[in-house]
Amino acid sequence: MSFKISYAPALLALLLALAAARPAAAVAPACPVGSYAAELRATESARDFYFTLATARTFSIRTYADPQNRVRIDPEIFLYDSSDTPVIDNDDNGDGVWSSFTIDLPADTYRLRAAMCCMDPDNWVTGGSYMVESSEPTCLSCSAGCAECTGPNACTACDPGFALVSGACVQTCPDGKFKSPRTWTSDAVCDACLASCKTCVNDATCSSCPVTHFYHRKAKACVETCPTGTYATADKFCRVCIGRCTACTGALWSDCTACAAPFYLSGSTCVASCPPGKYPDGSSRACATCPTGCKTCTDGNTCTACESGYWRTADSKCVLPADCPVGTFAHTNPNNRICAPCTSPCATCSAWGPNSCVTCAAPNFLSGSTCVTTCPSGSYGDTTSRTCIACGSGLWATAMDCVPTCPDGTFKSPPAWSSRARCSPCAAPCATCFSQSYCLSCQNGGTPSKGVCPTTP
């Protein structure tokens, strides 16, 4: 093992490096567990190095002048045991450029110091350097937490409670890593967390997150967006919504956006009963708006009460009075605003009763506000409008229209026009007649006598 000690005007530095054992000395033992053979770089105020002999052995050392600086001062060596008793005060052989010695030493820990002048261990002069070779390695303790190492910051095994990461033994793994296994073993290491974690307890469980993510306490995971059933907080946590909410934007009862059964969303609150004008929609679990005109309802098609100005139909709809279904009318009872059915035989009507018809269905015709099967005298039933049409002056009503002359088989009733004028049927056996029983011709071809048809032609 070799040591290099150098001087400079601006900086006094001592480099002590232990080299391999000289051929004349016994083979040097390896450094004990927990230490490593190392080069020492010392300053003027700390230029000693140490070695330990586990057993008595021959120790040899030799110094060399630096060939580049060609120091003309004889390097000198001082050696002390564990009680700081000098084993060798100095060794100045007068060569001026090197010193060496060999000595038998008992088992102990020793301190070796090099000087530059005058057989004085504390004497340093400006400039120059020299090399020191020793048969013993310089064993330095591994860094804190290392059980074994090959050099500074080069741990290969750790003390109990420490984990290995990048050549260092740490009690707490750095961000992005976790102790594996969690309970210490001699081969404990810091393994990588999930990519989304800042810190973690194992390869599947985050304990904190980077600023780009939110921490989901329940899942112990870091997420970019808080999942349904949670909401994002300013301090980057995903917190669970209150009990009634299945989705929310905050911690308040009024921050819900979806509800759990048996509750329904009304605005941003989960309620057990929907307010008036709303009904519980089981598919969306929200309070949906009742149809237009409904004051209360059970679903989107069934009103149970109507707003002012609306009437309820038989199929539980709320409509304006003019929109009551065909066959019904807007009942005027203020305590029971319904579209009531028309009285038969009205097709449509304006009020309750048979005399409030507006239209009639076949075979009936509207006469005034009443549905009749036969229109009154002086009118006929129009099959298109299903109404009774009154005939004008000089016209007699048939079953289908108004005529100035009644067709065969009928007669003018009365013979002189009136508002009730109509063509009435002749009585058998008349083929044509002047009145119901005064025949003008006979069905059997006979000739009537004084308006009476013979029984035989």
The whole-number mean of residue pLDDT values reads 81
Strand content range? 35-45%
Largest sheet: 6 strands, antiparallel
Rg of Cα set? 61 Å
Label the overall shape: rod-shaped
What is the C-level CATH assignment of the domain at 2-141?
Answer: Mainly Beta
| CATH fold call of the domain at 2-141 | Jelly Rolls
Distance between the termini: 166 Å
CATH architecture descriptor text of the domain at 2-141: Sandwich
The residue ranges in which pLDDT falls below 50 over 5 or more consecutive positions are 1-29, 39-46, 67-72, 126-130
Number of helices: 0
Counted beta strands? 48
Q: Give the fraction of residues assigned to helices.
A: under 10%
InterPro entries: Furin_repeat, Growth_fac_rcpt_cys_sf, R-spondin
Protein name: Pro convertase subtilisin kexin type 5
Signal peptide: 1-26
Keywords: Signal
Description of the molecule:
With 457 residues, the chain is mainly beta. Among the domains are: 2-141, Jelly Rolls; 146-192, no CATH class; 241-289, no CATH class; 323-390, Ribbon (Hormone Receptor, Insulin-like Growth Factor Receptor 1, Chain A domain 2). A hairpin with a 5-residue loop joins strand 13 and strand 14. The radius of gyration is 61 Å and the shape is rod-shaped. Residues 1-29, 39-46, 67-72 and 126-130 have low confidence and may be disordered.
